[in-house]
């Protein structure tokens, strides 16, 4: 594994949820998913009732997550791009996912599990800790926006 892949796996392990993106009937979509890293594999759990797993299975997907909602001054995001496949998880993998939601959109949660085989991994970081203090109040600037038909 490359240094970026190792770093991405470590960061992915810090948060429980992310977003999977692919296309369905030639239209792009993004859906939330629960993920775990289990023995080096990126596994996700989704709600079967939404049908997104059918578009993902055997297709190239992007799976990303970040810590943007945290209070950390060092922000990061990771993305794994690769082929997804439906799997039957082991009991240990199911346990690692933890509690399941009771419902999704008022429908009983029905889990489906997938493994992503990453072909590309990206890691981005934003460090606000070293940012210079904000300057003193700056007079406001009025901008005029013109609509062009």
Keywords:
single chain; 149 residues; mainly beta; 6-stranded antiparallel barrel; two-stranded antiparallel sheet; 8 strands; disordered C terminus
Secondary structure class reads mainly beta
Spans where pLDDT lies below 50 across 5 or more residues? 137-149
- Taking the alpha carbons of the first and last residues, their distance comes to 52 Å
Specify the overall morphology: globular
- The total strand number stands at 8
Q: What is the mean predicted local confidence, pLDDT? A: 86
Helix amount:
10-25%
For the CA atoms, what is the radius of gyration? 19 Å
Order of helices and strands: HEEEHEEHEEE
Oligomer: single chain
Percentage of residues in strands? over 45%
Describe the structure.
The chain has three helices and eight strands; from the N terminus they run H-E-E-E-H-E-E-H-E-E-E. A hairpin with a 2-residue loop joins strand 2 (27-38) and strand 3 (41-47). It has helices at 3-12, 52-56, 91-97, and strands at residues 17-24, 27-38, 41-47, 60-66, 74-87, 103-104, 107-108, 111-127. By secondary structure, it is mainly beta. Mean pLDDT is 86; it is low at 137-149. The termini are far apart. It has a six-stranded antiparallel beta barrel. A two-stranded antiparallel sheet has the order 6-7.
């Amino acid at each position: 594994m490359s240094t970026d892949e190792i770093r991405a796996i470590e960061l992915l392990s810090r948060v429980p949820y992310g977003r999977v993106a692919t296309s369905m009937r030639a239209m792009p979509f993004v859906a939330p998913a629960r993920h775990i890293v289990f023995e080096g594999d990126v596994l996700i759990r989704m709600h079967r009732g939404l049908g997104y797993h059918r578009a993902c299975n055997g297709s190239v997907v992007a799976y990303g997550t970040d810590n943007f909602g945290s209070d950390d001054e060092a922000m990061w995001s990771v993305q794994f791009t690769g082929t997804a496949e439906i799997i039957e998880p082991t009991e240990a993998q199911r346990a690692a996912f933890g509690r399941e939601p009771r419902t999704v959109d008022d429908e009983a949660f029905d889990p489906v599990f997938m493994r992503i085989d990453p072909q590309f991994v990206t890691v981005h970081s934003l460090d606000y800790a070293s940012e210079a203090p904000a300057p003193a109040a700056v007079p406001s600037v009025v901008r005029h926006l013109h609509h062009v038909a």
